[in-house]
């Protein structure tokens, strides 16, 4: 059975998931809800600390940070799975660590996915259209995905647009 890979980046992603389910015919597909813990920030924190204080972050602190990130990721995926089940979609969850764009593309390249659904920008980002309207993860996925990509954009209300704008026929 083929899967639709849906990138889930935050708690409260239910509206994006609902938009995906109403935008794509998913009969016969499993939703693969994926979240990637971006451990690059953890490495940057350790680097900054070692430069400023002359010593790296203690190992137990790194483990605590990692545990907190995994707990948050588990909550994010759990909420998304609850929304998918409420909407009648079969789903699986996948949790990875690394650079999010690369990990999502690698997951899709595994051969099971026919489509990637991803938000165009993080929720706190500027919503204006234009050359900077894609976040770095979405841009990497769009540029490197081996399968089609469906971008979901939030509208000014903060909620994703649930349907594409109507098609206006051309007048000859």
From TrEMBL:
Protein name: Universal stress protein
Gene3D superfamilies: 3.40.50.12370
Domain of life (superkingdom): Bacteria
Coiled-coil region list: none
Pfam families: Usp (PF00582)
The UspA domain, residue ranges: 17-153
InterPro entries per the UniProt record, alphabetical: UspA
Transmembrane segments: none
């Amino acid at each position: 059975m083929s899967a639709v890979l849906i990138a889930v980046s935050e708690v409260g992603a239910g509206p994006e998931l609902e938009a995906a389910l109403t935008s794509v015919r998913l009969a016969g597909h499993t939703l693969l809800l994926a979240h990637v813990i971006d451990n690059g920030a953890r490495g940057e924190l350790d680097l900054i600390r070692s430069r400023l204080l002359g010593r790296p972050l203690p190992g137990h602190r790194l483990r605590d940070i990692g545990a907190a990130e995994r707990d948050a990721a588990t909550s994010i995926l759990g909420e998304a799975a609850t929304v998918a089940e409420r909407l009648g979609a079969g789903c699986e969850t996948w949790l990875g660590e690394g650079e999010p764009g690369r990990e999502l593309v690698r997951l899709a390249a595994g051969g099971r996915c026919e489509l990637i659904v991803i938000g165009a920008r993080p929720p706190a980002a500027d919503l204006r259209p234009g050359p900077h309207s894609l976040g770095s993860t979405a841009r990497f996925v769009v540029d490197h995905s081996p399968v089609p990509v469906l971008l979901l954009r939030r509208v000014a209300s903060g909620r994703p647009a649930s349907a594409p704008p109507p098609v206006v026929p051309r007048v000859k």
